[in-house]
Amino acid sequence: MMSISKANLFGNEYMGAFCATNDSLTLVGGSPKGSGEAIIEKALGTRLVETMLGGSDLIGIYAVMNSRAILVPEMSYSSELSRLREKLGDTELVTITSDLNALGNNILANDKVAVINPRYTQSEALEIGSALGVEVVKMSIGGFETVGANNIATNKGVVLNNRVSEDEEEMAKELFGNTSQSTANTGSLSIRLSAIANSNGIVAGSATTGYELENMAKGLRID
Q1: What CATH topology corresponds to 3-212?
Q2: Beta partners for residue 19, in sequence order
Q3: pLDDT value, residue 33
């Protein structure tokens, strides 16, 4: 059963900044108070794991994941990674060394492809692709190199920020199979920082309008 919901974390409608997910596991920064975690767990149908990266609860900014692996920046503490590995099961945890260490902001990935900030080096692109087991494409979307912060993808499709060009949307359609354009949180172009999604559902920040949710559901094929 698929679900479309709204929530806040830490009293913040940019709840996607605190989360990263695939179709079975959701990482949540710190220990949020309130109903947000329960809403996420129900809507996405995942197991929740609370963690920190580099002492930060901004998991959605620093981590990116698909069904094969979770990529985290080198700034992550070894104690955090040890505790996280104990909870991951079969999902691999890979540390990436790069000046672009906000991996979640700079990588847009699912189980088939990763669109990455074009400023990643070729060796970094190869490392990202190998860890996630996907094709890697360097491109900006709608004038944003931070493709992971301004768009959101699952194995069913992608939601692009509404500054995307026709050529960029055509490329995204070839890569992800299904697209839509939207904003979130009442006009924000930071779609991924405003929401979290997988093949089962979407949870967007509380300021997201019904029209925005409809556009997002269309791109991610959530009924």
Answers
A1: L-arginine/glycine Amidinotransferase; Chain A (3.75.10)
A2: 28
A3: 73
